[in-house]
Amino acid sequence: MEQLMRNTLLFLSKNRLANQAAKKWGLRFGASRFVAGETIDEAIKVVHNLNKNGIVATLDHLGEFVFNEAEAKESADYCIRTLDAIHQSGVNSNLSLKLTQLGLDISKDLCMENMRQILNRAKEYGNFVRIDMEDYAHNEVTMDIFKELRREYGETIGLVVQAYLYKVEEDIEDLNQFKPNLRLVKGAYKESPEVAFPNKEDVDHNFIKIIEKHLLYGNYSAIATHDEKVIEHVKKFVQEHQIPRTQFEFQMLYGIRVQMQHELAKEGYTMRVYIPYGNDWYGYFMRRLAERPANVGFVLKSMFKK
Ligand code: FDA
């Protein structure tokens, strides 16, 4: 039943009409639990409050279904404005983005051109940009773009890898040539069993395996999870292998396991919260519901609230 609900929500997350309608509705159905606001000012305020509690951030201007050059350019402008706002306000945050937002489905060249503009600005400010990993259809091209831009921009850029993919271990080995800053996640999209582990236990097992591998390579690891067991395991593992706290950070999503975010920061770990903002919240919100269908209950409640 839960699996059916999960698949339905992931299917709905790709509905373009619902996505367009949602942009006009404003944050609804409890989406504000996961999305920090529709404007950059609202998002910066959220970052500021987290920073006061010793938590750092990564801001993401939400954008899905970009099918023409003008939309891709507009998305790139939003990313640049986000970097400007971070710089001007002095908050501690970097930037996360998706390549499809920047026109990857239109052309790789357009996407690269937009990425270079964003990375030039990030470099000027001494900030950092991380490419989120999307569905499997975009995986190889995202890896290629990362490698090309990593050669040009060095440590200004980082990538995400997904533990549910069979090939992820090979990717980690291959990427080690760059000594990259990687965010390690379980993976959020619906993938075929031909490319990804269908069982959660296998994903969890592979997640630990790739975290350990990347840490032992001596590379910076952003361990992005709300899974307490994984976090406890990492805490022990780094101690046993004398891996310094400067070589890794924990990351969680805005609105999820908030108390644990504060506890980890108090314990002295770098805790970074991923903060999405903007009016294109529909797909992101649906993926968060799919991760925990129990959340649908709170959506239904919010629909009946005035
Ligand atoms: P798991 O799903 O096992 O959850 C562990 C526990 O956390 C649950 O039992 C529940 O208590 C809580 N929890 C998890 N999700 C919840 C939710 N939505 N609502 C309420 N409670 C929840 N994926 C991807 O494919 N590409 C990417 O670029 C990213 N980027 C990214 C950045 C950051 C900072 C994070 C934290 C996650 C991502 N992800 C992602 C998503 C990731 O792949 C994964 O889908 C989610 O993190 C959920 O998996 P967990 O590791 O939390 O474990």
From TrEMBL:
UniProt cross-references to SUPFAM superfamilies, sorted A to Z: FAD-linked oxidoreductase
Family annotation (InterPro entries): FAD-linked_oxidoreductase-like (IPR029041), PRODH_bac_arc (IPR008219), Proline_DH_dom (IPR002872), Proline_oxidase (IPR015659)
Keywords: FAD, Flavoprotein, Nucleotide-binding, Oxidoreductase, Proline metabolism
Domain Proline dehydrogenase: 44-299
GO molecular function: nucleotide binding; proline dehydrogenase activity
Keyword S-adenosyl-L-methionine: no
Requisite cofactors: FAD
Functional pathway: Amino-acid degradation; L-proline degradation into L-glutamate; L-glutamate from L-proline: step 1/2
Residues annotated as binding FAD: M133, Q162, K186, G187, A188, K200, T225, H226
Cofactor note: Binds 1 FAD per subunit.
One of the GO biological process terms: L-proline catabolic process to L-glutamate
Entry-linked Gene3D superfamilies: 3.20.20.220
Documented EC number(s): 1.5.5.2
Binding site for substrate: K98, R287, R288
Catalysed reactions listed for this entry: L-proline + a quinone = (S)-1-pyrroline-5-carboxylate + a quinol + H(+)
Keyword set includes Ion transport: no
PANTHER family named in the record: PROLINE DEHYDROGENASE 1, MITOCHONDRIAL, PROLINE OXIDASE
Protein name in the entry: proline dehydrogenase
High-level lineage: Bacteria, Bacillati, Bacillota, Bacilli, Bacillales
